[in-house]
Amino acid sequence: MTNVETYDILVFGGGKAGKTLAMDQATAGKRVAVVEAGMIGGSCINIACIPTKTLVRSAQLAGLARRAEEFGLVRTGPVSVDMGRVAARTAAVVAGMVEYNRQAFRAAGFEFVLGWGRFVEPRTIEVAAEGGARRLTGERIYLNLGTKAAIPPIPGLREAEPLTHVAALTLDVLPRRLLVIGGGYVGMELSHAFRLLGSEVVVIESGGQLAAREDADVAAAIASQFAEDGIELAFKARITEVAGRSGEQVTVRLADGRTFAGSHLLVAAGRQPMTAGIGLDLAGVELDARGFIRVDERLQTSAPDIWAMGEVAGSPMFTHVSLDDCRVAKSGIVGGARTTMGRMVPYCVFIEPEFARVGLSEKEAREQDMSYRLATLPMDVVPRARTLSERKGFMKALVAIDSDRILGFAMLGAQAGEVMAVVQMAMLGGLPFTALRDGILAHPTLAEGLNMLFAAVRPAKSQSAQNAQASEMSIGVETVKVIHVTIACGQPFEAVRDALVKNVPALDTQLMEVLKGANAAEIKERRAAGPKLWLFETRDHGALVAAEGQAKKSIQFEIGNPLTAERMTRHRLAAGLYAPLRIVLYEDDQDRAVFEYDLPSSLFDQFGDEEIAKTGCELDEELKHVLIAAAG
pLDDT above 70 covers what percent of the chain? Predict the structure, then answer.
């Protein structure tokens, strides 16, 4: 009978959380063993994060090389990609990381047992190791088993032998036409990478947008970029059958009759936990309906002295979250109080341009019935983005309605992950958004755009209902002095809004047609020929329009078709120094309508400082009539 080896700490699975905890505890003097099926260092460095981002880097450079003429460089022929060299570079990066981990394991001094393991008794794991079967137990057992790519039960799919991310990262031939099932984060990264490397790509997504958990404006912007890069997108796609074989010829058929054919098929349709067939029932470890291990906020399983960490415990599927699970587990060992509750989890999607987010999205804020102030900024107005010729994308931030707390930040743009980290540090430190608005950020950097982004946040409702204040706002590469005016109308928000919409017919109907299909050239021509127009962004991404008539009076109203933040800001910048920089209608804590104006101080140069507030707070006569009508 095999002897049972006893350890202080036994870690089953050597992913980020498991290996980090093992090294920490072994270094602290504990007797530690790690059981790992086959990947030294875990999935992140072997088959996930590291090889994926290495492949993405090759793809980025291939895409950049095709744009050589933009930078004054001369290409003598088309860009060609040697997938053998791409795969070799990826393998070399992985090998280097594996060796680094191997040396770190040795230095820590824990027992590393390589082989497939399973529970054979409540607290005993048997491992089919190279030198023969071994049985191990520990006073404290930690499960860090990970997940694997899920293969949906679609007729013919498994028989088609599709690629998962694991095989896709080792391809030494470029797929002629790659079909990708799934438009989530993994599907997006690999789809865009292979498109930039030169493959034709089709993304087949069952939902109505890419990146299902993200806001509609983010998903739409990513989809627009994908389409511009030549990726075909198929939404609301219910697959009924797959025929053929990946690597040769494969066909995907949809319920609505659409059919897609390609040379290769990649499945990126979710993950499933590695919990089957390893005796967790013998250990008394309960699973949820999807097969993930049930844990509490301290990662304790249903079995005494057994904890679970990482993806298998239902934690968000990011390596940095797995690392934080290790912190929670370590806290438990030393009697600390750290838990998984209330964690701020940032993440990045390495497409071109990058997408990054931390904190709440608008969708999540609405689901929590949480009011917020919204600010957006197109990357096109950030000077560094222009010097890099990386002008696509936008930033947006959510700020609490009644305080200056930052609720969330998202960015689609060059080096989005690095900029996001700046906002995350402010959020972790409990800093108000004004710290990023007013802080001196180096010029020209991408993070400098945060000054401009947070300058667009309107004052909190708790501030004075009627006040005007002088400040500075960065507009593109210029900085102008701005008079900010808040006007409490004293009337119900819904009534005022409806009255504004009702008065739309009073404006030039031709003007409305221009606005419905607004583009920069038309707006510029129209402004020169007749009424002056300005487009602004409301907090819910609607378009707010101001039109200056013959009497130089203005009226504001919402139009039905939302414009992109990028388009709205472009028009706002084109308006020049004599136009309002921002106008917003919103409701206060008593559901009453409040208007906000940001006006360049040059409008009031003829007045003294004492008269600025009085002048700025006066609504023009036409708007007053609208409000009177709203009051009934």
Answer: 73
Mean pLDDT of the region 95-111: 97
Does 613 lie in the same domain as 484?
Answer: yes
Q: What is the pLDDT of residue 459?
A: 82
pTM: predicted TM-score of the whole model, two decimal places: 0.75
> Quick check: 479 pLDDT over 80?
no
What is the rounded CA–CA span in Å between residue 118 and residue 135? 10
Determine the average pLDDT of the residues in 245-257: 98
Residue for token pair 């936990």: 273
Q: Which helix (H) or strand (E) holds 398?
A: strand 394-400
- At 218 the three-state DSSP class reads helix
Query: Where residue 265 sits, what CATH number does that domain have?
Result: 3.50.50.60
Asked if the bond preceding 444 is cis, omega within 30° of 0, the reply is: yes
Give me the DSSP letters along 11-44.
EES-SHHHHHHHHHHHHTT--EEEEESS-TT-HH
Distances (CA, A) of 77 to 25, 69, 175: 56, 12, 21
Dist CA 506 CA 9 (whole Å) = 76
Mean pLDDT of 439-461: 92
pLDDT tens digits, residue range 425-434? 999 999 999 9
- The tokens describing 346, both together, are 């940032």
Assess contact for 328 and 313: CB atoms under 8 A: no
Instruction: List the catalytic residue out of 192, 443, 484, 571.
Output: 443
pLDDT at residue 568 greater than cutoff 60: no
Higher pLDDT among residues 38 and 567, named by residue: 38
Q: How many domains does the chain have?
A: 3
**591 pLDDT tier (thresholds 50, 70, 90):** low
Q: Is position 443 annotated as part of the catalytic site?
A: yes
In this prediction, residue 111 carries a pLDDT of 97
- Amino acid at position 538, single letter: T
pLDDT of residue 493: 52
Contact 283, 123 (CB under 8 A): yes
**In 163-292, which ranges are E strands?**
177-181, 200-204, 232-234, 239-245, 249-254, 259-262, 264-267, 271-273
Contact 619, 630 (CB under 8 A): no
Q: What is the DSSP string of 515-531?
A: HHT--HHHHHHHHHHSS
> Is residue 30 located within the same domain as residue 122?
yes
Tell me the two tokens of residue 202.
């089709």
Q: Has residue 22 been placed in a domain?
A: yes
Q: What angle do CA 278, 280, 281 make, to 5 degrees?
A: 120
Q: Tell me the residue range of the domain where 132 lies.
A: 4-148+273-333
Query: Distance between CA atoms of 311 and 356, rounded to whole angstroms?
Result: 20
Q: Is 100 helix (H, G, I), strand (E, B) or coil?
A: helix
E strands present in 182-321: 200-204, 232-234, 239-245, 249-254, 259-262, 264-267, 271-273, 306-308
Q: Look up residue 41 and give its amino acid.
A: G
